[in-house]
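From the methods appendix. Each design record in this collection lists the tokenized structure first, followed by the designed amino acid sequence. Records were kept in a plain field format so they could be parsed without special tools. The example shown here is representative of the layout used throughout.

RECORD:
FOLD TOKENS (318 positions):
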């Protein structure tokens, strides 16, 4: 089973693909002896406040950038530029107040459910007792041919994970609950998926494909951006994109229950009605596309922005 059971990321055909034999980041197996293997198990004493752990993973070829593949069920992920030739992991238990606030911000309607009589009995049995910290967490990491796979040793204990990678590295990252997914300052390709949390990307130049279910998607490019098709989507939240002032792109925009805003002059053009033949009755079905299509700066690679409940915003970088 993968750590992320329900990816809904809208990827363009050019987005980097996962290899068919990719291992579950949470259940990694030893590689062949020729592979450089680094497996780390991090734990925190039950009665002590958890301290951040710092781990250094050397790359097989320091002259080349890394590819980071990371999947969490509980926790946040932040990737920042580091030194060439190595990947650094800094793992810590989340702050309780911040975790509770994030859970409130991204609460699923109808959950948590109302307490049952059995729940009340369990709670009564614990009344007056002192809860001891149980914040142990684990990480497993493997490096092979400059690809670093990172997974959580526990599916139930949250972890805040900071990754320092060579600036040209590419990242394929996902998390389900417990925080945001953030990347800054990298030049490689990014494929990012969150389920209950935000995605924030700043000062990047490579292609980005980012999606979440309950949260906002915010992506800000540097002075330049890759000439490639990209997609940005959420179900419940805003999609906010900051482009270079001289950007030349084509855009496809869709917000079912929200508005669309732009700092750019967008030459909009409605997609023509689509006529479909009904084989059973020999009639026709006419459907008008719900997306807005247009160009910025004369057009270029396609950027697809979609939300169901939220707004779309196109900013011009200052």
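DESIGN:
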């Amino acid at each position: 089973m993968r750590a992320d059971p329900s990816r809904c990321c809208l990827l363009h055909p050019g987005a980097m693909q996962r290899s068919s034999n990719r291992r579950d980041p949470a259940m990694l197996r030893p590689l062949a002896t020729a592979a450089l293997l680094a497996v780390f198990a991090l734990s925190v004493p039950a009665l002590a406040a958890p301290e951040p752990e710092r781990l250094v993973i050397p790359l097989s070829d320091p002259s080349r950038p890394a590819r980071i593949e990371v999947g969490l069920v509980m926790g946040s992920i932040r990737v920042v530029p580091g030194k060439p030739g190595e990947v650094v992991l800094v793992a810590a238990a989340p702050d309780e107040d911040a975790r509770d606030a994030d859970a409130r911000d991204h609460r699923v309607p109808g959950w948590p459910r109302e307490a049952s009589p059995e729940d009340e009995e369990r709670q009564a049995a614990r009344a007056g007792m002192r809860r001891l910290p149980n914040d142990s967490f684990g990480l497993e990491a493997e490096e092979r041919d400059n690809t670093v796979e990172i997974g959580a040793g526990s599916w139930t204990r949250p972890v805040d994970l900071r990754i320092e990678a060579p600036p040209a590295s590419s990242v394929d990252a996902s998390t389900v609950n417990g925080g945001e997914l953030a990347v800054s300052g990298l030049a490689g390709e990014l494929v990012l998926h969150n389920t209950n949390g935000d995605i924030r990307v700043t000062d990047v130049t490579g292609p980005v494909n980012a999606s979440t279910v309950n949260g906002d998607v915010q992506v800000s490019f540097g002075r330049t951006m890759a000439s490639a098709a990209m997609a940005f989507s959420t179900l419940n939240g805003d999609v906010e994109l900051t482009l270079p002032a001289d950007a030349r792109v084509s855009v496809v925009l869709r917000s079912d229950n929200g508005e669309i805003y732009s700092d750019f002059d967008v030459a909009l053009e409605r997609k023509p009605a689509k006529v479909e033949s009904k084989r059973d009755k020999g009639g026709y079905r006419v459907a008008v596309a719900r997306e807005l299509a247009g160009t910025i700066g004369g057009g270029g690679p396609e950027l697809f922005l979609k939300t169901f409940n939220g707004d779309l915003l196109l900013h011009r970088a200052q």
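APPENDIX NOTE: Residues 1-106+134-203 form one domain.
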